[in-house]
Structures are given as structure tokens and as C-alpha cells.
Amino acid sequence: MLILVTDRRAFGESLASRLLQNGIFSLRASHETALFLCEAKDCGGVLLDGRTSPTESEALCRALRERYPELPIALLLPKGYLPASPADRFLREEEGDLTDALLDFCHTLCGWHAGEMTTFSLTVGNDPARTRYMGYPLPLSPREHTLLHCLFYRAPHVTSCDDLLSLCYPIDPPSLASLSVTVSAINRRAGAIDPRPLIVNVYGRGYRLRKGILD
Do 38 and 46 form a contact (C-beta atoms < 8 A)? Predict the structure, then answer.
């Protein structure tokens, strides 16, 4: 999971949406909450948006590097700004498609790949039509597929409802009630193949895949 540290809401939503289309799930954070989120969440990489305040972002980069020496960090800087921070990669919006550059960062430095994830029981990737459960096709709506993909991507972790909404629907997320309906719909479709629930609710914490799916 990537933490997008930006105070530009529209920019963060747009970038998170483009990353999601390429199989990368991300949470947005402000500069003030970034250290807390990196500690509270099992993040595997960070993008610091330094376009509006490069010195503040560089200071945050140094703080993150001191606390998490192995954490991959990318720093987005304005044109012409000369960096003096321990980031692993420096990005600039003027140098081409930022999404491609950030995907390369995720693949090469964070070690994430956007191909199909598969076990004996479940196969999920970017193409909903290729989703399979117990060897059978599992037909899902786009919203259901995104949610299942996220839980597989996050497995074996439990993911809170708030995080699921942010990770799966970076622009105009649905309500918590709608999330529950989506989980029920996935389990109902999967139940036609195997009566055990594919997604389980961990009371007070959130959702995860049923134990045994990753074996």
C-alpha cells in the first residue's frame, strides 16, 4: 500500500484513481498526518508531494528516513528545485507522465507488481472477467471486483471499513452501509461455488479474506 502525502486534494484523488486502474492501492495523507499513518498502517512506500512546499516535504522525508530506514520514498518536486533529501527517487510533473514514473517506483523499489494474484482457491487481477474462485469464474460488478482485489492485495491483514473506502474508491467513496452491501453481494456470488464466506467481518476491526484462501 502506498501512502500519498499531499495537501492538494484534487491532485491526490486523481493520482490515486490512476494508480488504482493499474492495480496499486493507496491512502492519501496530509503532511501533518503522514508520520502517524506510516506508523499505524503497513505501508510499503511513500510519495511526498513537494510541489507546494518542497522544504516541508524534504524535512518530512528526513524524518521518515530516520524512523524507517528501509521505506521506499519518492519525492515530487517543482521544476528547477534542487533537492537535498534522502529520497530514493525524485519526480517532476513536467518530465512526462507522472503515473508511469510512480508505477515504475512502485514496481522497482517497492517490489509491487500489478499482475494477477493467484492461489489454489482464488485468482484476482486488474481484469474482472478473469476472476476465478475454486477454479470457477466469479462474476462481479466493477465495484465488487475492486473491493475483492483490495482485500486480496492486503491479505492477510484486516482492513478497516474506512481504509477500504479510501483504497477502493478514491473519488466519491460510497457509504459504510453500501460497503456492507457490496461485501454481502460478493459472498452471495461466491456462495454459489462454496458455501463458506469468502470475506469475513472481524468485529470492530474490518474485513479480510477467509483463512485458508492464501494457502
Answer: yes
Q: Based on the domain organization, do 70 and 94 belong to the same domain?
A: yes
Quote the CA–CA distance of 18 and 20 in Å, as a whole number: 5
Domain boundary among 108, 130, 155: 108
Kindly state the DSSP code that residue 94 receives in the 8-state scheme: G
- Domain check: are 125 and 189 in the same one? yes
Q: Is residue 214 part of a domain?
A: no
Q: Which domain holds residue 191?
A: 117-209
- Are 182 and 169 contacting, i.e. CB atoms less than 8 angstroms apart? no
Residue 74 lies inside a defined structural domain of this protein: yes
> In angstroms, rounded to a whole number, what is the distance separating the alpha carbons of residues 174 and 162?
10
Nearest residue to 72 via CA among 37, 106, 115, 116: 106
> What is the DSSP secondary structure assignment for residue 203, as one 8-state letter?
T
pTM of the model: 0.86
Mean pLDDT per segment of 10 residues, for the chain of length 215 residues?
A: 92 92 91 88 90 91 93 92 90 80 91 82 91 95 94 90 93 90 96 96 93 87
Q: Of the candidates 152, 90, 147, 150, which has an alpha carbon nearest to the alpha carbon of residue 121?
A: 152
Please give the tally of structural domains in the chain: 2
Identify whether residues 97 and 152 lie together within a single domain: no
